[in-house]
Amino acid sequence: MYEGIEDIYRLLDAGRLKEALIQLQGISTNTNHWDIRNQIENALTGYGYMLQYARQGMDDPNRAVFYRQMRCKAYELTDATHIALLAQKTSAVYYDTIRTFALHPAKTYSELQMQLEAYTEEMTTAPLLYTDEKRRNVEMEKADRMHESALAELFNKTWVTIHWTDTEANEAGKLLESVLVHPNDLAVMVSAITLGLLRVFDAKKLHFLMEAYRHENLQVNQRAIVGIIIAISKHEKRIQLYPEIVSRLSLLCEEEGFRKNLYTIQMQLLITRETSKIDKKMREEILPEMMKNAKHLSDPKFRFDESEDPEDRNPEWEEWMDKSGMNDKIKEMSEWQMAGADVYMSSFAQLKHYPFFYPIVHWFYPFDLNLPLLAPIKKSLGGTDFTPLKLIVHSDFFCNSDKYSFILSILEMPQAMRELSIHQMEEQTRMNEEQRDRMETLMSRKKEAKDISRQYIQDLYRFFKLWKRHQEEEDIFRWKFNLWENPLLGKTLQDEGITKELADYLMQKEYLDEAYSLYRKLMDAHCEVSEIYQKAGYILQMQKRYAEAIRHYEHADLLLPDNVWTNKHLAQCHKLNGNMPQALEYYRKVEAVKPDNLNIALQIGQCLARMEAYTEALAYFYKVEYLEKNPDNARRAIAWCSFVSGKYDEALKYYHLLLEGASPKAHDWMNAGHVYFVMRQVPQAIQHYQQAQSSEKSHSDFIEKFNKDRNVLLALGLTEEDLQIILDLLL
Hints:
This protein is mostly helical. It contains 40 helices and no strands.
């Protein structure tokens, strides 16, 4: 941000209008834009008159409205000044485009509309006008080039025009209403508006997006609502200065269709938080494993005949899948995909280097097989066979950007190799009749709004992460997009069911603070459902806020008495909070319902041990040891309880069992040393202490852990001198 501009924005945010305008007037002298400087001067003069009237005590019923309008104007002038200053010295694409249009002004929206409409008409009439195929192809190619040029100009003009004039807004509105402008072109325009609003707020552009949301085409209306969400998230406070926008949004939020759409997109935006995690796992685990074992997949002996029983699989293949963990990884990937997660970021990230992606506008093209660059591949998509190529270009799972990447990667091959590859894909994916019917149904399924919005959000994600100059744009995917907290949109998501679903998702993904805030909302709204209090308590327990967790669990218990899960977690929290008697009470309740649960028996034993009821504790530990398949924890407990109750031989018996086992721990060696030390068998004690010490980083670390048992050792008859001497012996 240009030096001093940020201070002006802060003053405007605080309502200190005169100070902001005075500072803005000073900074504007660094620009070459006389019109901006004149507007600032006029704004200062006009505001000065208002202040003069106010000083004289003159009553003006329109004063508040005038002040708000002046404040909006001051924001706009600050925006214009800031952009003008940066355009003088910044080399970003955005400012390059501004400078280009300063030298060569863009066409008006009316002129661009005429060009786009002419293209639609020419594509419709060309086959009738030009009977000669060669001539027809020449004319259509010419029209394609003119259309692409017009669309690029439309995008760039819309992107860098910081504030529409009334004329521009009216012309843009007519363009939106045109039945001859292709919806894909309108979708590109909507994306340009969204990208522009990220830079500078413009009320007229936001109004355009709200109109575009009414468009019948899904590509247009779904991009529009995503743009509305982005703009409101970016300019939440500033928008509240425009009552006409607030009123219009309020009416929109009352519509059931908008509410459902907003919730869907809210979830899709939350899911994008997982993309980087999935991407990392794909790059580091799944894809390397698949590449490493590619021979298993390509070797003919690992293929199946489609007529075979689907359960009759090659044992070798199954063995490889099991050993590699690929079965689990593929299942996990499938679950991600079905949940709407972006699983293809890794696969296509390396396919964004093609010249096609150099112009920024191409990142926002809806996928269209009629684009001239796709002509060489289009004929391969004819016929009725459902080839991998056809499945990808028609699939809802792949976003527009990835479809272009896939096709471009095929086009990069020499023609002979390309045709061979396509043929091989066809041969390797022959489908039986049932599979063909299923795929036909899938491909013919009418696209839903959620499919389009998800694809678009993934396209945006790719742009902000993978565009070669993405550092020049603010990465919206660093935002949280907690729309339920937004004062303009939050009330739309206040439905109890929606709030719970959002909270559950956030808890599942371990966004604990956000999840808790939503459960808190439900509780504050007197949602007396035991599950809500259970989950809120569980989050607090995970955050080690045990006393608060207990209060929620107790409320859950009031709503649903004697619930085993609640009682168990009440017991856990009391135990972790140091209240053993209370923990024992709740563990006893769980035990009454689940007498054979060995973990509960172990927990009861631990509580009794902490209460020094060693005889009763040992009874529980012996039970667990006898029944548990892996009884090491029970044996540790038996050994320690035997030790502190003076049964040294019994303690040594169990410590030896642990030390001779597969995975003895450092404290097993230390505790065995304690037993020998208390029995005055110093050489054996030193031997075991040395083993424990060897696992520590330093002698000091060993001493720290040794000292935790100091009181126990003193209580069993050792003296302070004994303890100090043994530590010195270990040096």
